[in-house]
Design a protein that fits this description.
Strand 9 and strand 10 form a beta hairpin. By secondary structure, this protein is of the alpha+beta class. It is built from twelve helices and 13 strands. It folds into three domains: about 90 residues, Rossmann fold (3-Layer(aba) Sandwich); about 150 residues, 2-Layer Sandwich (D-amino Acid Aminotransferase, Chain A, domain 1); about 55 residues, Dna Ligase, domain 1 (2-Layer Sandwich). The strands form three sheets. The chain has a five-stranded antiparallel beta sheet. A four-stranded parallel beta sheet has the order 3-2-1-4. The structure holds adenosine monophosphate. The site of adenosine monophosphate (AMP) has 17 residues, from strand 6, strand 8, strand 10, strand 12 and strand 13. Adenosine monophosphate binds next to strand 6, strand 8, strand 10, strand 12 and strand 13.
Length: about 350
């Protein structure tokens, strides 16, 4: 998809559209702060909820199901409103990869990255090629010689993940998940070395207009039941035979030791450079690296997102880091709108949409 997606667009009345879910309220709020009209693409049963925020939404496009996004009439409505679509963490999961990457509406972000993100192995390879330290990976059949976390595909918020200590435990766990219908075959899973330390998730923004990478915030996820296990005396956990699980229920703010920031920013820059090299023009706007920091301050990245992540919702009024760049409340949603505004003013729109 190239800039022909902008054909017929009125550059003086661009609107910002997204699926009403995930981080959409933040995106609409930020868009309004920067003076844009907003479009909420919403499924019928959620319309009542988003209507509570109608001061943030100028137009609602109501669908029976998310998969209708690519229907001709829906695309035409979006184009009529000169809408730029903001893909967030639920976008590909909801509309499907085919629609997500082929929709004939300008996207703020890198379409080519959706396909990489849908493939857990390709994702980890991109991180490795960026020169970012990652956990060891194992394939089914390979000898698992240390504790591992076994991850199922798709953005299901950690559902079905488990820890195993041997190849046999990996296979047993995966067979059970096949029986439960969570996956079709064990080969779909990704097996990663289980990293010991604390989790930390960094929110970045790459600005093609300013050609710089900004750290807009950081968060920790609150995951049940792994975070809850701390509340149980270890012997009770053993008695109850509780296995850790990793289902996200929310996010908490995190401010990092300042001495960690150079490394965190360096990883962000490496990621941007790798995407520029491997998937030109490279990542555009928000992305996130998910890491574990060990007690020797080593940061290893086990996952990334090429879009706005839900953890940014903590900072609707800006974060300690975004304030340092902008000296005004700057959420990721607002930063997207600001980039769009600057690109329009500088006649650089083709640099930030694909
Ligand atoms: P993910 O779906 O990759 O974001 O992982 C969900 C959760 O599992 C993370 O937020 C971490 O708590 C945990 N996790 C994922 N990968 C690892 C790893 N390699 N080592 C330790 N914990 C992990």
């Amino acid at each position: 998809m190239c800039v022909t997606v902008l054909e017929g667009y009125d550059l003086n009345s661009i609107s910002i559209a997204t699926l009403a879910s995930h981080s959409s309220l933040q995106i609409f709020h930020g868009a309004k702060q920067e003076g844009f009209k907003t479009v909420a693409v919403v499924v019928e049963d959620r319309l009542w909820f988003y209507k509570q925020f109608s001061h943030l939404v100028d137009y609602f496009i109501v669908l029976g199901s998310w998969r209708e996004l690519c229907r001709r009439d829906v695309v035409e409505k979006l184009r009529k409103l000169s809408a730029v679509l903001i893909p967030h963490g639920s976008y590909v999961e909801y509309v499907g990869l085919g629609c997500a990457e082929n929709i004939e509406v300008p996207i703020f972000g890198l379409r080519k990255l959706f396909r990489v993100e849908a493939d857990q192995w390709a994702k980890m390879e991109l991180l490795q090629r960026a020169g970012i330290p990652t956990p060891m990976l194992f394939r089914i059949g390979e000898d698992v010689d240390r504790p591992v976390i076994v991850k199922l595909p798709g953005a299901k918020g950690g559902r079905g993940y488990f820890i195993a200590r041997s190849s046999q435990e990996v296979l047993q766990g995966l067979r059970r998940r096949v029986e439960e219908g969570l996956i079709k075959s064990p080969e779909e899973a990704m097996i990663q070395e289980y990293l010991v330390g604390v989790p930390a998730y960094y929110h970045y923004f790459y600005s093609p207009v300013l050609d710089r990478v900004e750290i807009l915030g950081a968060d920790i996820r609150y995951e049940t039941n792994v975070d809850g296990l701390k509340r149980l005396p270890p012997q009770v956990a053993v008695e109850l035979d509780v296995e850790p699980s990793f289902i996200v229920v929310g996010n908490m703010p995190l401010v990092l030791r300042e001495s960690l920031l150079p490394k965190v920013l360096d990883y962000g820059i490496r990621f941007v450079n790798a995407t520029k090299r491997e998937l030109p023009p490279g990542v555009i706007g928000p992305f996130c690296l998910e890491s574990i920091i060990s007690d020797d301050m080593e940061i290893r990245v086990f996952e990334f997102s090429g879009r706005i992540v839900a953890g940014t919702n903590i900072y609707v009024n800006g974060s300690p880091y975004s304030y340092l760049y902008w000296s005004e409340p700057m959420s990721t949603g607002r930063r997207i709108a600001r980039e769009l505004k600057m690109a329009i003013e500088k006649n650089m729109l083709e640099k930030i949409i694909t």
